[in-house]
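tool_call: predict_structure(chain=1)
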Amino acid sequence: MKLEASLLPCTLIADSGATKTDWCLLTPDGTARIYSTCGLNPYFFSEDEIVRELSASLLPKLADAPIEAVHFYGAGCIHEPAEVMRCALNRCFPYAHIAVQTDMLGAARALCGHSSGIACILGTGSNSCLYDGQQIIANVSPLGYILGDEGSGAVLGKLLVSDVLKHQLPADICSRFFERFGLTQAEIIDRVYRQPNPNRFLASLSPFLAENIHEPILCALVCNSFTAFIRRNVMQYEGWNGQLIHFCGSVAWHYRPLLQKVADATGIRVGNILQRPMEGLVRYHASTTE
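tool_result:
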């Protein structure tokens, strides 16, 4: 007897960042249905809070679809927090196989699939890893936007606003910056040093660079930050010059031409560039038997 498609076991894939989680319900016939909830970082959400959020925002949308496996890739999903997420998902999907992994592994699988390579994230923050086709085998610590995160939106915003406030840019560019955001120097200092999530605030300023990338001094700022990311991260992996280097994230996507320019200048070979990992994760899990 042939089962209806709605009764066949499905796979649920999640890519969770700081503010948003993308969910994909993958059916056996290859249909992919996308849903969204808030970001679910288990460093900041308890098990009960995660269950409440999923019960309210996700489970009703799935309409009792038979979930056979859940693959959750998320920020903060290491050690004890990963177990918090696994327990919460197990309560929501008691008959499914649950796998909780880091967002970096999600990016690697989305970008590289089942092949080896170096996977990089350039978004609000930055990160990278050497990937063997299944797992991460080396990772250069990103260190966050104060000590690292080269090439990220937060660091691009930090470099930009520092140059504006220290009058390192032409006066007309500084005037455009203040007109664009309607911020005073005092407000910027308050947002960076006194308000929560200064990295997100700084990243929110970085689109000014893309809007004015025709200015040579701003183009150089972006290129120098991408060069620093490559030299301080990518080139630390053994055999980097024999690997394809892949990128995902909003910064990588919106600055693709400049990223390719820097890659050519530094001698790295660029592979895939994705705005978001989900498309690649669907391909990965549709072609794997794990």
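agent: The chain is about 45% helix and 20% strand. Proceeding to next step.
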